[in-house]
């Protein structure tokens, strides 16, 4: 039976790179997104007949159920990996972010992923019972989940929530044979990094990153980390030098890190 990846945010960026990486290994790929033209562009990069596209707003629980059922039907009856990858950015001072912006980032990044985990559970459980390889819920968190930094408050809160969701479900679903993993990349060169931090702040997220002389990684590196996470035992996978440096400082030099960030 063909193995199937269901990936949200599959129209571009990290989701597109994940789709390509798993397709290279012979997997059927079910793309889910609100961006229909973008999914078609991703599909054009995949083997013919080995992908499907599903309109999904991750905030809609009923849409999750419908998309997963359609993906399973298209992919041969089972779903082996659900990648909770859809997300939106929000940066800048919290006081400069509107209520609508704060509510949007929370409901898409955290509520949407939690609804996705709930909807994915019966499909992943069935795949685990059938055997034949790893079965996994994969959450795209962020280096922001390691330690909240200035200018990332609401966004970091959602990604820290994804980290906690990963840890809780890793224990909760262990008896069902479902692995739960997270990815924690630093800044990645996707269309999201070209957006403004928030509506009240000029420039782009890329501008902020470059001023701070931080590294910007490639979606392909996150996709390779996703492949390794699904097939490995590591609960959280750091991706890129920014994530590794922040993890080191948060663990071993928390006082120095706090003082530096407060400056």
Automatic annotation (TrEMBL):
Xref: InterPro entries: NAD(P)-bd_dom_sf, SDR_fam
One Pfam match: adh_short
Gene3D superfamilies, alphabetized: NAD(P)-binding Rossmann-like Domain
Top-level lineage group: Bacteria
Record keywords, A-Z: Oxidoreductase
Family to which the UniProt record says this protein belongs: Belongs to the short-chain dehydrogenases/reductases (SDR) family.
Protein name: SDR family oxidoreductase
């Amino acid at each position: 039976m063909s193995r199937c990846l269901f990936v949200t945010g599959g129209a571009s960026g990290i989701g597109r790179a994940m789709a390509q990486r798993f397709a290279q290994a012979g997997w059927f790929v079910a793309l889910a997104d609100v961006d229909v033209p973008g999914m078609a562009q991703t599909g054009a990069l995949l083997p013919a007949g080995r992908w499907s596209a599903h309109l999904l707003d991750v905030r809609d629980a009923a849409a999750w159920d419908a998309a997963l059922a359609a993906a399973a039907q298209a992919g041969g009856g089972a779903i082996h990996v659900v990648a909770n990858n859809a997300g939106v950015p929000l940066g800048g001072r919290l006081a400069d972010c509107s209520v609508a912006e704060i509510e949007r980032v929370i409901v898409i990044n955290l509520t949407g992923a939690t609804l996705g985990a709930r909807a994915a559970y019966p499909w992943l459980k069935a795949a685990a019972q059938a055997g034949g390889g790893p079965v996994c819920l994969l959450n795209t968190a962020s280096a922001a989940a390691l330690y909240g930094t200035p200018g990332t408050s609401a966004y970091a809160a959602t990604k820290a929530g994804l980290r906690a969701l990963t840890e809780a479900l890793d224990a909760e679903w262990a008896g069902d044979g479902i692995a739960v993993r997270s990815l924690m990349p630093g800044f990645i060169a996707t269309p999201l990094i070209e957006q403004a931090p928030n509506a009240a702040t000029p420039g782009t997220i890329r501008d902020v990153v470059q001023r701070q002389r931080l590294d910007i990684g490639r979606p392909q590196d996150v996709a390779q980390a996703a492949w390794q996470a699904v097939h490995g035992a590591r609960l959280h996978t750091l991706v890129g030098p920014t994530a590794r440096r922040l993890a080191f400082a948060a663990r071993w030099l928390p006082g120095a890190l706090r003082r530096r960030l407060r400056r």
